[in-house]
Amino acid sequence: MIGLLAVMLASLAASAVRLAAQWERAIVLRLGQFHAERGPGLFFVIPVIESVPYVLDMRTITTVFKAEQTMTKDTVPVDVDAVLFWRVVNPQKATLEVANYQNAVSWASQTALRDIIGRSTLAELLSDREAIDARLRTVIDQRTEPWGMRVESVEIREVEIPQELQDSMARQAQAERERQARVILGESETQIAEKFQQAAKFYADNPTALHLRAMNMLYESLRDRGAVVIVPSSAVETMNLGAVGGLVNTLGMVDSGPAVGAKPQAAESHAAPKEPQEPPPGRNSRYGLDLINPHPDCLAEITSEYPYLQYRYELFREEMLDEGSIDRRRVQYELLKEAERSYEKATGEKIAHWQRLLVARFSRNLALSSGELAPSLFDLTTAARSVVDDNYGWDVWETGGRYPPQRADSDLLTENLTGEQIWRNTRRIRLRRRLPTRKQRLRPAGLKPRKKEKTPGEWAHQLDGNAICSYPPEDIVIEGYGRFLQKKAKSILSEERMHTEPFTASVLDGIDLRETIRHWHENQIYVRQLDKVAGEVGSVIVIFDEDREDRYPWLTTWLGEHANESDMAFYSTNPFEKLVGPGIGRAEYGGFLMSLPPRRMIDVWTDPDYDLAQSKPERLLLAGLDYSIHRHVVYVAAKPPRSIYRSIAARLGRSILYVPIGALDPAKLKKIRVVHVLDSHARRAEAKQYIW
Q1: Phi, psi (5° rounding) for residue 362?
Q2: Cα–Cα–Cα angle for 594, 599, 602, nearest 5°?
Q3: What is the pLDDT of residues 514-548, one digit of tens each?
Q4: Rounded (5°) CA angle 274-276-279
């Protein structure tokens, strides 16, 4: 008994001793109320009565935030990256006034950045960054100061504008430079003419000066070029150049013969050499051509046909067997398939069927817009980047530029040329490959390692099986994306009904830059008017995969836990086949339905009212039409629903707003497609230790 008591006392004494690093401050609560700040160094707490729920880092913290597709004051969509340097100055406020101060600072910064962009023009964002940074710092500081944080500095790292607008601005700048060059040239001609006029007046009054000037010009020409100059005999008589030939030969500035051709008698008497000269050397033939070996990495930029196609032609010439191997459409298909295999190997992700179709359609439209029958490598790369991501665009470019016989080692000089050196009006595309590198895989100091099973199957034995629930941070993300899709669908429908007209008295809903630039020669500004969509959006259905092969067998209906959370039905992979923690499974959505406000949705997958559906996406669409209290229902998928569902929607007084899934950001879709399922509410407290 005494030993047990001693162990308990020792344990309490150990828990009373705490240590905070030099840069840390500890918050001490006594009986649940704030008591004091402690640290740095060693400090003591009263066991049971006092607790330390937070230990705050007082060093400067760096937060990177971004605003995507945000409209500026002059209606230009821009992507802006910025970095925030801030620190905690009042630990008490940082813990008591806000739930998660780091997330709060991040969201406040992003919101402030969007506000500043909306109040600034594109020219201000590009040229006056210091003022923008100062305004942004002031706004963020005002929002975070009540939370005990202080902003040290804010810096905008990059401002990206659409490629079409970049091309337009480049053409405008080029036209402006050409105009300035012509003005400068005209002013120079005017100044030269004025100087010539003054010189003419001076030489008219002084013939001797004119003769000396003519002799000096002739001498300079002979000295610099070393050639024979023919002048009229009248000019020789006028300028008295009888002795110039001897002077030139004495200086050795000509190859042979008299330097000045005038009267034959004068040339022989004054310029003939006393001894025979050597015959003139032969002319060197120089055509300005150099033979070099282009580096394999630059072939895709400098060749008229992309190297992947050229190599297939070379293989066909060797055997002359399969003519289909050089068919452009088949070559394009093989190129995309090979790039797809490289993409899956590098990233572990697969290209969906709808993405393949969209890449083919996108690249075809790009070719037609350029007046070509087949897409170029640039068109294929642009389509791959726009539909999938930069990694796939990189693989398409790298595969299309591959020509195995070309080597960097050669007897000739190897040059890595660029497209600008070979072609005029070269188009460029920026690819940012984001593959895991060794540096990125290194674990930063201070981060806890991911927990693993002590023995195989340990987490599977801890499954409760009585109930399931979601992970709240993921709920917030997907709810926010659902609201984004509601606005996106209405904006797409409004854009489809938009019309443009020349500016008269009102800018209506803003200036239409595309039409204005297209009619720039008319000196007319075009404005646009959007047809506002009546009604609100109720349900949102997102279909990643139609699941014709039954790869997503897990069918679930979730009910919202409060009035601001949607009811949800989805089909996915089985989460408990891939456990990431005790009672915590990870799955991938095949498709989901969100209906707000929650109306206590009956299980969609067993409801007999939806048995007329022929697939899982159609069942979700029927449920979305049924449970929506608003007029519009958003349907995001690779292809629109069957026409019968338009009739069903009209009968129910609903309207289906179809959004092609290819029109959305692939990176965001990839993030929201992952879902974690917990086998009980009790798992939420420890889930953050296992979900990354």
Answers
A1: -60, -50
A2: 80
A3: 788 888 888 888 887 776 667 788 899 999 988 88
A4: 145
